[in-house]
Amino acid sequence: MSKTFNISIIAPGKEPLKLEAESLITLTKDGEIEFKANHAPIILSTIPTTTLIINGTMKERIFTSSGIIYLKDNELKFCCDAVERESDIDVDRAEKSKERAEKRLKEDKNIDVERAKRALARANARISTISINH
């Protein structure tokens, strides 16, 4: 049995991230989920979070927005609205996005509350992706 599996993380306007790993840990609305080699076939949706990819001693933290994971035969396809490696995240931009979303939610006048909540979730996930190592 294989110890690793193939991962493709796909987002509009970006080259797909193609990785081989022993584990991928991400978040759904029901909580954290971990995938390993030889996992049963599954399709599920994710929420904005820091996705952790582990291969031996290598650990990579990647921001992933809302998306869909499809896993079958040791091939995991993760299609999401946005994906950013830790080194690609613009901290200032994420902080400003967070402030804007929080301000909109406080004002609560003529705004799309769900859209503001999603923007806040994405900003917080980006910030947490980079804040652990800094």
Automatic annotation (TrEMBL):
Residues 5-82 form the ATP synthase F1 complex delta/epsilon subunit N-terminal domain. Gene3D superfamilies: ATP synthase delta/epsilon subunit, C-terminal domain, F0F1 ATP synthase delta/epsilon subunit, N-terminal. It is a peripheral membrane protein. Keywords: ATP synthesis, Cell membrane, CF(1), Coiled coil, Hydrogen ion transport, Ion transport, Membrane, Transport. Residues 88-130 form the ATP synthase epsilon subunit C-terminal domain. GO terms for cellular component: plasma membrane; proton-transporting ATP synthase complex. Residues 84-133 form a coiled coil. GO terms for molecular function: ATP binding; proton-transporting ATP synthase activity, rotational mechanism. Signal peptide: none annotated. It is found in: Cell membrane. Transmembrane segments: none annotated. InterPro entries: ATP_F1_dsu/esu_C_sf (IPR036794), ATP_synth_F1_dsu/esu (IPR001469), ATP_synth_F1_dsu/esu_N (IPR020546), ATP_synth_F1_esu_C (IPR020547), ATPsynth_dsu/esu_N (IPR036771). It comes from the Bacteria. Belongs to the ATPase epsilon chain family. F-type ATPases have 2 components, CF(1) - the catalytic core - and CF(0) - the membrane proton channel. CF(1) has five subunits: alpha(3), beta(3), gamma(1), delta(1), epsilon(1). CF(0) has three main subunits: a, b and c. HAMAP family: ATP_synth_epsil_bac. Produces ATP from ADP in the presence of a proton gradient across the membrane. This is ATP synthase epsilon chain.
